[in-house]
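Sequence design from tokenized structure. All designs in this work follow the same two-part layout: the structure record, then the generated sequence. An example of the structure record is given first.
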């Protein structure tokens, strides 16, 4: 079973990488981009796990290691 964990900075947390990308896009002529946020996507392969079990395991992994809950939010999605 494959699970996708998406980790993003919380609203209100400064995202310098997102600001740099936003500036670069405007420099390249892509007007109209107001805000860019950068995050990370982690795909986990949990062989033999059923969807509900895989989601619960990935949630624990995200809380314990993959996301810094002080400044980041995360979501877990079963993809296979």
């Amino acid at each position: 079973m494959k699970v996708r964990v998406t980790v993003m900075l919380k609203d209100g947390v400064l995202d310098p990488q997102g600001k740099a990308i936003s500036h670069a896009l405007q420099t390249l002529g892509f007007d109209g981009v107001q805000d860019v946020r950068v995050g990370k996507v982690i795909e986990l392969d949990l062989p033999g796990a059923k969807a509900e079990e895989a989601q619960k395991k990935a949630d624990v992994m995200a809380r314990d290691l993959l996301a810094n809950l002080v400044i980041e939010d995360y979501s877990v999605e079963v993809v296979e």
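The beta strands are 2-9, 39-45, 72-78. We note this feature because it recurs in several other targets discussed in the main text.
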